[in-house]
Amino acid sequence: TNRQERWGVEVNFTMFDVWVAFVATNFFCTAYSLLTAIFVKKLLGKRWLHTVDQLVVNLQTAATAGAGAIGSVAMWGNKTSGWYAVCRLYRRYCDVGAVALALSFAAFLSLGSACALSRYPRTPARH
């Protein structure tokens, strides 16, 4: 829902494909986290769990890095490419994006911790 209008010109997150992918990836990672939290007792000791956890951590990292790169260009611009810093004009839009990036980084840290815990479970793997 990140959008801001100023002087009849609207900016929103759907203007950049990387932000759309960022939102979709965060939804996917949230759904995965909720499902594994609900079924944690059934999943303990499953050998494939760590591999899927690694995949989710890598997806979260890639989405956060991509959105952060675009956010950096929006914040400071790029004179060589002729891209202007839109955050000077659309401050609220950029502030909401910065909060989303910070929360996504926190999710990356949480998922990374969960991935480490799935690698070394307390109960041995079932064969």
UniProtKB/TrEMBL annotation:
A single GO cellular-component term on record:
plasma membrane
Superkingdom of origin: Eukaryota
Q: What is its main location?
A: membrane
Pfam families, A to Z: CASP_dom
Q: How does it sit in the membrane?
A: Multi-pass membrane protein
Q: Which UniProt keywords apply?
A: Cell membrane, Membrane, Transmembrane, Transmembrane helix
Record's subcellular location: Cell membrane
Q: Which residue stretches, if any, does this entry annotate as coiled coil?
A: none
The signal peptide, as residue positions, is none
Segments crossing the lipid bilayer: 18-40, 52-76, 96-117
User: In what residue span(s) does the Casparian strip membrane protein domain sit?
Assistant: 6-109
Membrane in keyword set: yes
UniProt family annotation = Belongs to the Casparian strip membrane proteins (CASP) family.
Whom does it interact with, and what assembly results? Homodimer and heterodimers.
Descriptive protein name? CASP-like protein
Taxonomy of origin reads: Eukaryota, Viridiplantae, Streptophyta, Embryophyta, Tracheophyta
